[in-house]
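stuck on this one:
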Amino acid sequence: MKPDLPAPPPSQAAPKQPLFVPTTLGPGTPPGLPLTHTEAQPASKQDFSPHLTSQRPVDMVQILKKYPIVWQGLPALKNNTAAVQLHFVSGNNVLAHQSLPLSEGGPPLRITQRKWLEASQLEGVARRMTVKTDYCLLLALPCGRDQEDVVSQTESLKAAFITYLQAKQAAGIINVPNPGSNQPAYVLQMFPPCEFSKSHLSCLAPDLLASISKISPHLMIFIASV
């Protein structure tokens, strides 16, 4: 694992305006759906707007219900941030609720370390994913306050996170302590599109992967307790 990355100046908290989902989720998709900031909740409690059906293709409505949004906020890498929404894919969604900061005014998820995308480094992740209660798998997609902001956040996610991590052939690591502690309690690993992420997403969420793989940048997020 690579050493800690240099700590940049403090980043701004997540934007307080309602965020919009990406415009690139499917053909004919309108310029985004406003989403209010809420704490991460178990998938079964996720609420969806009643006018979703009239605005989106039926297949995307079903996909959004199947993979609900559990968090919106800012991942951070060096001096860069990008607004994303995290969709629950598989595993124990309680881990997301416990490890992610508040969407409203919470701190960014700052990547401080990297892990090589090598078999020896990935075996532990694959092993944890054999026990459903031991991990939480999420998919990060860009979002924004309006259509123009979605475009800007999409470019930021691609350039500052995906391209960077792919060039380093690494996943980004975020250590999350419990409130009031400095000791890591959870580890979040952000994977750019790669063979490892593609193999797991194609198995666990083939419909979601097929919908976004060619039209929207994304990160696969793996969460586990330390």
